[in-house]
Amino acid sequence: MVVIVGFHESAVAPEGLVNRDPRVGGRLFSATSPFNQVIPANAQIDPRSAEYVKLMIRSKRDKGFVLSVTDWTVPAYFAKSDTTRHDVRISGQPPGAHYDRTFVHDVRRIMRGVPIPDNAKPDPQDDAHLTVIDPANGCEYDLYGAEKTATGWTAKWANATSIPESGIYPYGLSSRATGFSPLAGLIWPAELRSGRIDHALMFAYPYTRSGGPVFPATASDGKTKLAAALPQGARVQLDPTLDLDQLRLTAYERTIAEALQRYGMFLGDTGGALALYAVSPQSFTTNPYVDVLPDEPYVFLDRIPVNKFRVLRTGSQSVQTPLTVVPSSCAQIEVLGRTP
Fold first, then answer.
1. Would you say which domain of life the source belongs to (predicted)?
2. What's the pTM?
């Protein structure tokens, strides 16, 4: 069992330890995770970058560039030593699994011993995301289509991974269509309050290319055949030479723009608009975004210039991804049989 370090009450981790508690400014996942890699100054730009960005500009014009705060995002709860553990019944409908024709849907499974706090609630929208981190064992439990019923917790899909790892399920089948951890690339309140985000962001986009993912994504729910559609897993950067002082950004836009220049954002899902994600405020006892963000479900990032985006070289799409539930020390997942 992997033991996590760095979940401390203060933002400063003891010498030699890594602070991974994002509630106090820590950073999730390993130092080698793609989400924790600064974009090098000599990064290669995709030959089709201008074409991709032109479609992104169209998307912003149609529906805006937004930060999802209360809707279609991920509530993140933290387990304690006395948190009740539940066996979560899974109906076998993972997002982004339709590219592997050998993967059998509607296989009933059960994930044993998931610590879910009594106050935990899924996101109210249809995807019903819910994630729990257990600091004691360094595990992350990801639920999609989560629901608490009279007989216990159920989910369309559920899986678990270790926080000290990359934040990417190696053979897909996370609760995110691309195989990314649903917390990978999300913005935390502590980051906005400090004015610094030290990781790449994750974004959704209407025009995701069909045909499979590109590295580092391990699955895809890409839906369009448009030539300028982005493959899922693509990394987009705000021009690092852009002078942000000239843009009259709000404080939160400035923090986000600096992260987009330094780390960029990975395409991790198909969505109705060009959108970044903040951790759902329902994860906290009081709204952590008071005086940090406007009190809106979606915060528009109007002053961040999408026309100054550039797409880094994507590599080739994986036409068919080998989707597999990888055994994990975090949870035992048992197959029960086909859904009637």
1. Bacteria
2. 0.92
